[in-house]
Structures are given as structure tokens and as C-alpha cells.
Amino acid sequence: MPLKLYALCGADRTRPFSPHVWKTMLSLAHKGLAHEVETVGFTQIPKLEEGFSPTVPVLRDGDRLVRDSFDIALYLDDAYPDRPALFSGEGGRAMARFVESWSMTTLHPAVMRIALVDIHDMLGPEDRAYFRQSRERRLGRPLEEVVAARADEVAAFAGKLEPLRAMLKVQPFIGGQGPLFADYIVFGALQWLRVASPAKVLQDDDPVAAWFERCLDLYEGLGRGVRAA
Amino acid sequence: MPLKLYALCGADRTRPFSPHVWKTMLSLAHKGLAHEVETVGFTQIPKLEEGFSPTVPVLRDGDRLVRDSFDIALYLDDAYPDRPALFSGEGGRAMARFVESWSMTTLHPAVMRIALVDIHDMLGPEDRAYFRQSRERRLGRPLEEVVAARADEVAAFAGKLEPLRAMLKVQPFIGGQGPLFADYIVFGALQWLRVASPAKVLQDDDPVAAWFERCLDLYEGLGRGVRAA
Fold first, then answer.
1. Cα dihedral B72, B17, B190, B88 in deg (nearest 10)
2. Helix or strand or coil: residue A204?
3. What tens digit of pLDDT does each residue of A48-73 get?
4. Which is it for the CA torsion B191, B193, B198, B204, positive or negative?
5. B1 pLDDT above the threshold of 90
6. CA dihedral of residues B150, B151, B155, B156 (deg, nearest 10)
7. Topology of the domain comprising B3-79
8. A147-157 exposure pattern, b = at least 16 Cβ within 10 A, e = fewer
9. Identical fold at B3-79 and B90-225?
């Protein structure tokens, strides 16, 4: 039985946008593991696999269910040690946590402040109501207010990637000469923005843009298979 | 013959302050390698080992000379593979580059804007003249102007550590359950500030402060051996 990944989509089920699901889609391709993808809307997630997880990605591998993109990557390296490594050693497992924390605290809030209304507008009617209510409760204000300073956020976004830009002077991927899960962590954030929003946050000659293009090319253009918003 | 490390000091030769030298001092302790330390002022560096390097740390190991804290760490793991690893695998080597870039682009400029005049004032007379001239040329303005917004920089500093703070919810060190070179990279930046400046940038109950204290405790309190400014 092939593996099965539950992925998040809006009204158009061909356009997965969740940053965390993208991390797992690249992880599965990295390991070369055949899998099917079942796309769901926000409000379907709690019903999946008898309420296994409040969030996606969720991966089913035979009898085993795993949730959370980082835990799925750890699971895949443990369960398929003969396939290409996603972490490449204990140090890589640990330091990928730092990359994840950097992406979550630096990039994700900025993507939200740019693309929150775009994401809302991608959703089907039921999911829109859920999304607006849950996000407005979490953020303490209307979605439209969160994206009010959108132009400033777009202008500031490239600056937040300065650590990656500096690193790219030394090596082409966060994983070194080739990509590792740490690359997919940061790719997920930028792909989320690319699929959800037409905002242009990187100049074409930015080394970070070149790295992102390299990631879009991976695995026969898996990421590029969903066109930009 | 024991290893020999060239370290940077001001007028008081018992107070090494260079962030990069601190990374190497912790690296040598991590590997359990006996070594002597020769302290030098800024203007002595170009004369060391027949002009081997414009910067410290420089490590002599028998006939071998190595410069740059990251390259020294790579050298130590290659030359002493039976000692505790500084990177713990290929993934760790690669991702430590991201931690270095983050520290250099986020923390180092902030430490400069807080402590530049403090650092100047620690130096001997010859080194003061060199330091002022080289830094003012690099920064394009007087040292005193760079630190003019010092209070704002001190207030903003803790926020820059948010990626580390978030990661510390998952594990006690960037290296995972124990420290690796990636921890020493970030430790170096904070130790530089601690030795040079009385500025208090972290609240006592900050998880980052607790991590820094853990790092100060390592190797019989090596970092704590130099008292705070």
C-alpha cells in the first residue's frame, strides 16, 4: 500500500498551499517514496482518520499515522534509512530545529501579514467562515486590518532573509551541496506565499530568489507544478 | 607540543573578548584538547606567524596553521575524529553555516551598535587608534555616532533572539541535548557583549538567558572565568 498524505487546499483542489504540507511533499520526493495525496479543506481536517490531528500534514504509512512536518521527516529518516537522508546526522536533526524556529518566528508572521486575505479568498465557503473566525480570534483583529500594512511588509520581506542570503555565499543549500529538510522548511514558507499571493517579495537577482528557483526545480519541478498566484 | 591559540585582548590581557576567539576556546574545550593561549592586541595580529592571517583566531597545531573559527572547528573534527564531535554529521556541518550567518547578520551588528565604544575603551593606546580608524572607515561614521541609539538597541536586542527562544522550547541546546559548535557560534556573540559592555540585554527569566548560563557553565565555567563588564 502506498503512503498517503493529507494536504490542505482551498476551493481549487489542485493548489495545495500549506507551508507545512509543502515541507512534507518535498520530504517524500526527497526519499523517493511513492504516495497518494488526498486534498482537504480546513474544516475537513478534524474529521480525518478518526480525528487523529487538528492540523495537516498527516501521513499514513500502512498502520502508522504521523502528524507534524518535522515529526514526519524524522519518521521517514528512521523508517527508510536506506533512502536519501533528510537530516544527515544527529547534528542536522538538532540544527534543523533552529532553522524551523527561525522560519516560524521570522518568515511565517510576515507571510500572514501579506497574504492572509489572499489565503481567505482561496478557500471554499465553509472554510472561509472557519478561517476568518479562528484567525481573527488568534490575531485579535479583522483579517483586513492584519494586511493593512501589506505594502510595508512586502518591502521589508527580503531583509528578513538576510541570514539565508549570507549563507548562500558559502554553499548552495542550507543542507550544503544539496538540499535537506532544512531547505524544505524555508521553501515551505516561500511557496505558501507564492501559491497564495501575487506579492513580489524578492528581486530577480537576489541569491535567495536563485535558491528558491533551485528548490522549485527539484524532483522534476514538483513545487513549480503549482503555478504562482 | 600542545596546540597554541592566538586570542584577542585589550589592555587587560586576562579578558579575551573576540566573539570568534570565544567560539574556538569553547571548541578546544569541547574536544578536550590541551592548548596554550597567547593573547595579542589588534595591531599585533598582522605580525603573527609571519603574517599568516589578518584576523584571529589563529590555531597552531604542530606544523599546521588554521585561521577562522569555523574552519578551525572543521579542522578539529577532521584531525581529532575520536574526540567529541563539534558538528555531529554532514547535516550539522552544513546547517551550522546557517546559524553562523544568522548570528553574523542579526546579532553582531547589534552588539556593535551597543558596545563599539566600550570595546574601544578596553584597548591599549596603539590598538585604540587602529580600531577607531578601521571601524570608522568601515562604518562610515564616528564610533560615538554608531552607539548613539544604544538604549534603543539594548531594548531591541532580546527580540532578535526569538528564533533561539522558540527553539529552546524543544531542546536545551542548538546541538540538541548537548552543545555543538553551533551553540558556540551564538555564545560567542553574547560573550563578546558580556565581556565588553555592562548593557543588560536579557531578562533573568528569559529562556535565552538560561541557555547562555548553561554555556557559561560548560567546561568548568570556562566562559564565566572572565567576569562580566
1. 20
2. coil
3. 999 999 999 999 999 999 999 999 99
4. negative
5. no
6. -30
7. Glutaredoxin (3.40.30)
8. beebeebbeeb
9. no
pTM for this predicted structure: 0.97
Tell me how far apart the alpha carbons of residues A112 and A156 are, in angstroms, rounded to a whole number. Answer: 13
End-to-end Cα distance, chain A: 34
Q: What is the pLDDT of residue A207?
A: 98
Average pLDDT of every residue of chain B: 97
Q: Which CATH class is domain B90-225?
A: mainly alpha
Task: Show the cell assigned to B227.
Answer: 567576569
CB-based contact (8 Å) between A162 and chain B?
yes
The structural domains of chain B, with segments of one domain joined by +, span 3-79, 90-225
Residues 6+ apart with CB under 8 A from B134: none
Buried b / exposed e along A79-109 (16+ C-beta atoms within 10 A): eeeeeebbbbbbbbbbbbbbbbbbbbbbbbe
Chain A residues touching B164 at Cβ < 8 A: 98, 101
Q: What is the pLDDT confidence band of residue B2, given thresholds at 50, 70 and 90? A: confident
- Residue B89 CA to residue B119 CA, distance in Å, equals 36
Beta-bridged to residue A39, according to DSSP, are A7
Mutate to test the interface with B, among A88, A95, A100, A184 (most CBs of B within 10 A): A95
Q: Tens digits of per-residue pLDDT, B21-36? A: 999 999 999 999 999 9
Alpha-carbon distance of B164 to B168, in angstroms, equals: 6
Q: Note the pLDDT tens digit of each residue in B131-172.
A: 999 999 999 999 999 999 999 999 999 999 999 999 999 999
- Residues of chain B positioned with their CB less than 8 A from the CB of A173: 94
Residues in chain A where the model's pLDDT stays below 70: 1
Q: Is-contact A17 A188, C-beta < 8 A?
A: no
Cell of A17: 498551499
Say which CATH topology domain A90-223 has.
Answer: Glutathione S-transferase Yfyf (Class Pi); Chain A, domain 2 (1.20.1050)
> Please, what's the b/e burial string for A25-57 (b: 16 or more CB within 10 A of its CB; e: otherwise)?
bbbbbbbebebebebbbbebbeebeeeebebbb
Which pLDDT score, from 0 to 100, does residue B129 have?
95
As a 3-state breakdown, chain B gives helix, strand, coil percent values, each rounded to 5, of 60, 10, 30
Examine the pLDDT at B7 and tell me if it is beyond 90.
Answer: yes
Q: Cβ B175–A94 below 8 Å, yes or no?
A: yes
**Chain B residues close to A30, C-beta within 8 Å:** none
Q: Which three cell numbers stand for residue B171?
A: 531542546
